[in-house]
């Protein structure tokens, strides 16, 4: 085959130049002689690349690995020859030697890994962006790009890549873009992924963050396609809220304005903060499991016991009377007057903001009172519980909840 002989001839010529320039002594040749050697080296390399591309374009799958190994081995020889010649040319120029010695500093960076593409439509955009940056938009030879493309795309998932393809790199990349760069299918895929998020009943950091990540990935892909995702809050927010656990839905609704349309950024921020609060262990001083930490003992003195407890409210169990209902529907609690509810919440060690155990109002991630906007539960709001309907009470007592939480009973 003519291409095979021409490529072999170019390899031999480049190796001869490499062996010759490797033994150059500083100052043995002038700048013009060295530049002529560099031109000859570039001409032989261009001849090698042309015939190598033709051989790879017509090669079967079984032959591609051999061509790739030849390319990798030959590339080092050519680069070394170029380095020797360029270094000798710099040393032969009077302007360089008269100024100051050149300080050489070679930094070898690890090559960036090219991601693989599994043939699924939802992963195409991420793969295409990275592959175009690292391979497609570079000055690498076409044969090298073709080899990298076949390494990155799974032949079992995309038979187009694994078949005996008659075209070169440009034809194969064009065929892949025609198949997967379909705006309609891409949009439908990511919208469907957003709509089909599986509703969860688990109020855990893992479940909440999975929803957050899925929303971010889907909308980011749609934004890259140029779709106005920033204007979809009124549609997307109710869809995402419907996928959340009942407890998280209730907390979200309590934190929202009753009249304004919430934004998607506000919802995702709320879910991130709630996931963080659910994964944080609450440590308090009080009645709980006692353990002694040696790191807190002073030398020669008595040990200091650290008491830690985390109390989690069971779903459907009243934190006041321990009945089979939530405190929001507790008949005994709801018939109480304002002062009695405050006393009952204090006795049961409830958070004055969400009426759950295990943390204080300052640590509570839930929203504020729906009636006055202060940091307490709506069931503990004096304004909503005024016993005399004709009496106008415009505000809740300043600092009432704080006083109770700190142990002050003078309400």
What is the β-strand count? 2
Strand content: under 5%
Q: What share of residues is helical?
A: 40-55%
The best one-word shape is: elongated
Main beta sheet:
2 strands, antiparallel
Number of helices: 16
Biggest sheet strand line-up: 1-2
> Can you tell me the residue ranges where pLDDT is under 50 for at least 5 consecutive residues?
95-104, 284-314, 387-411
Q: Give the count of structural domains.
A: 4
Oligomer state equals single chain
The average pLDDT is: 74
Q: Radius of gyration, rounded?
A: 36 Å
Order of helices and strands: HHHHHHHHHHHHHEEHHH
Q: What is the straight-line distance between the termini? A: 100 Å
Find the structural class using helix and strand composition: mainly alpha
Task: Tell me about this structure.
With 411 residues, the chain is mainly α. It folds into four domains: 2-99; 121-181, no CATH class; 185-278, no CATH class; 335-411, no CATH class. The protein contains 16 helices and two strands. The chain has helices at residues 2-22, 31-57, 61-92, 94-99, 124-136, 142-152, 159-162, 169-180, 183-195, 205-224, 233-242, 246-255, 264-278, 331-334, 338-347, 400-405; strands at 289-292, 305-308. Helix 2 packs antiparallel against helix 3 and helix 10 (205-224) packs antiparallel against helix 13. The longest helix has 32 residues, at 61-92. Residues 95-104, 284-314 and 387-411 have low confidence and may be disordered.
């Amino acid at each position: 085959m003519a291409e095979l002989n021409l490529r072999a001839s170019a390899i031999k010529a480049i190796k001869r130049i490499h062996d010759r320039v490797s033994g150059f002594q500083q100052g043995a040749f002038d700048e013009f002689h060295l530049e002529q050697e560099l031109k000859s080296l570039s001409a032989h390399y261009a001849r090698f690349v042309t015939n190598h591309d033709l051989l790879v374009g017509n090669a079967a799958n079984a032959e591609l690995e051999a061509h790739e190994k030849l390319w990798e081995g030959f590339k080092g020889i050519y680069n070394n020859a170029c380095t020797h010649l360029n270094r000798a040319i710099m040393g032969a120029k009077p302007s360089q030697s008269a100024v100051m010695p050149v300080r050489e500093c070679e930094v070898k960076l690890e090559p960036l890994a090219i991601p693989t593409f599994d043939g699924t439509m939802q992963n195409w955009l991420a793969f295409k962006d990275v592959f175009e940056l690292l391979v497609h938009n570079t000055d690498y030879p076409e044969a090298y790009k073709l080899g990298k493309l076949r390494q990155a795309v799974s032949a079992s998932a995309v038979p187009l890549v694994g078949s005996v393809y008659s075209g070169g790199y440009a034809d194969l990349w064009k065929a892949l873009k025609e198949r997967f760069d379909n705006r309609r299918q891409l949009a439908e895929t990511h919208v469907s992924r957003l709509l089909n998020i599986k509703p969860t009943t688990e109020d855990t950091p893992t479940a909440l963050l999975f929803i957050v990540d899925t929303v971010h990935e889907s909308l980011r892909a749609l934004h890259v396609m140029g779709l106005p995702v920033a204007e979809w809050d009124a549609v997307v927010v109710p869809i995402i809220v419907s996928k959340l656990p009942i407890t998280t839905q209730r907390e979200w609704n309590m934190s929202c304005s009753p009249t304004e349309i919430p934004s998607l950024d506000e919802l995702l921020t709320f879910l991130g903060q709630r996931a963080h609060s659910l994964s944080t262990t609450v440590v308090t001083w009080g009645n709980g499991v006692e353990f002694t930490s040696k790191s807190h003992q002073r030398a020669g003195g008595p040990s200091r016991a650290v008491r830690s407890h985390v109390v989690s409210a069971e779903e459907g169990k009243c934190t006041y009377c321990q009945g089979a209902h939530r405190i929001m529907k507790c008949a005994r609690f709801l018939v109480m007057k304002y002062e009695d509810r405050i006393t009952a919440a204090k006795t049961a060690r409830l958070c004055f903001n969400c009426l759950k155990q295990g943390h204080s109002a300052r640590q509570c991630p839930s929203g504020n009172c729906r009636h006055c906007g202060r940091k307490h539960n709506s069931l503990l709001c004096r304004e909503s519980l005024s016993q005399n309907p004709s009496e106008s009470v415009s505000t809740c007592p300043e600092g009432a909840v704080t006083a109770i939480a700190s142990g002050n009973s003078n309400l």
